[in-house]
Amino acid sequence: MIAKVFRKAKDAIRGDDGRSLVQGYLKPIDTDEIARKLDLDPVAAERGSREQPASDSQFLDGVEQRIVQTLEGEWSWHGADLINNLRAYGSRLIAVSVQTELAKLDLLAQNTLTKLRDANHRAEAELGPLRETFVAYRDELRDFRDRHKLKRLARNPGHRWTTFGLLFLLIAVESVLNGVFFAKGAALGLVGGIVTAIGISFVNVAFGFILGLFPVRWLNHKNLLVKFCGSVVTLVGVASLIVLHGFAAHYRDATAAVGEDRAFGAALQTLQSSPLALADLNSFYLFGIGLLWAFLAVWKGATFDDPYPRYGAYYRRALRAREEYSDEHAMLFDDLAEIKEQTVEAINAGIRQIPLFPQQAAQIRTQRDAHLKAFQTYETTIETCVNQLLARYRDANTHHRKTPRPRYFEVPWKLPHRFLADTAVLKEIAEPPTPPLDANAALDELRRLSTAVLEEYELLMTNYPHPTRMSD
């Protein structure tokens, strides 16, 4: 009793479509389990004792139909799985088809060649002018180096625009410091002193920067005349800075002594008569700070560009042209290099694998034929099992009845059709006729395609090389 309840629960969980009675695809069928599940023996005895089906009946009764439906359901399910498996075999055969592989590789190579040729046309319009500009500026830079006997690379200081921020900071700091010094004699006090100091500081820093940017750098020139002019202008400039700050120091003393109205004349007079005589220690501070800031500005001017005059300008022109050409080159060609490599690798893989395809295809067909034979045997097994179960039911039914059994009990059951003769199955195993193929000629064609892709890419790179590969 307990075992029966357990079986009923298990059947409810697994379902009652009969599919669980066959343990996997094309596995043996347990007819005893099916008979137990259908309660075949008790039902046959009960119906036989009631003289069912009638002796003149010509069709399967409900129990027999259930037997047939149970195994026909399994057969139909396996038939659908057979078609899926045959499709898988077909896909495997296509994967090892020499004609299919050749067509695929030919299409891949033609697409790659089209992309390379299209890039060549685009490069002529988009990259050509940039290449000419870069080559012109590069040659111009090389000629400049040769004329001036420069063997080193140009120095291209980074963050050049931050120099102007530093110069502004120098002017601001010096203005405040000088303003404090000038506040003593200014009519407006600290504000008036700062206004006066701003003018002096601006002239001081701007003049020092220009002095360092031009005449100081002329000292590095190969031409002796330019070097001499740079020396003279530098000396005059340094002297001018010293005089400027000397005047500023005397002007501060004069402002405190005689007032702003007469300070200018008094400062000129004391600067000429006793340039080193200052009345206030703060005036010496004013003089020292001014010179320090001036020489900082000279240093920033001298290091603002390459020490050799005009070398930095030539270098930056060539560098900008190179970067523009390189960026456009990358936009056009970076992806092409990867496409070329993938295409050549696919073709080479095809050259290695295609000779193995006929043997692999034969193995797949052998496996498919074995599968078909196994299914053919399975269909025979289905008929046998159905007839075994029907015979078991009919024998038990006959044993318990008093009237003659129906005549159709003697007729064996057959499958309504065979899956192996089904149109869907025949379609999946049919193979279109293929023309004879010269394997050596096919491999030679693949090698030709690989060479064509490489040559087209090399032609493209020769016409429009990357800057690192451009010949001098």
List the helices and strands and how they pair.
Layout: H1 2-14, H2 31-37, H3 40-49, H4 62-95, H5 98-126, H6 128-147, H7 162-182, H8 189-218, H9 224-258, H10 260-273, H11 281-302, H12 311-353, H13 357-399, H14 423-429, H15 439-463
What can you see in these coordinates?
This protein has 472 residues and is mostly helical. The protein folds into two domains: 30-100 and 355-469, no CATH class; 157-305, no CATH class. 75% of the residues lie in helices and 0% in strands. The chain contains 15 helices and no strands. It has helices at residues 2-14, 31-37, 40-49, 62-95, 98-126, 128-147, 162-182, 189-218, 224-258, 260-273, 281-302, 311-353, 357-399, 423-429, 439-463. α7 packs antiparallel against α11, α9 crosses α10 (260-273) and α12 (311-353) runs antiparallel to α15 (439-463). The longest helix has 43 residues, at 311-353. It is elongated.
Q: How many strand elements?
A: 0
Low-confidence stretches: 1-23, 183-192
Give a short account of the largest sheet: none
Please write the string of helix (H) and strand (E) elements: HHHHHHHHHHHHHHH
Structural class: mainly alpha
Number of helices: 15
What's the structural domain tally?
A: 2
- Dominant shape: elongated
Give the tags.
single chain; elongated; 472 residues; 0% strand; mainly alpha
Short description, anyone?
This protein has 472 residues and is an all-alpha fold. The chain has helices spanning 2-14, 31-37, 40-49, 62-95, 98-126, 128-147, 162-182, 189-218, 224-258, 260-273, 281-302, 311-353, 357-399, 423-429, 439-463. The chain is built from 15 helices and no strands.
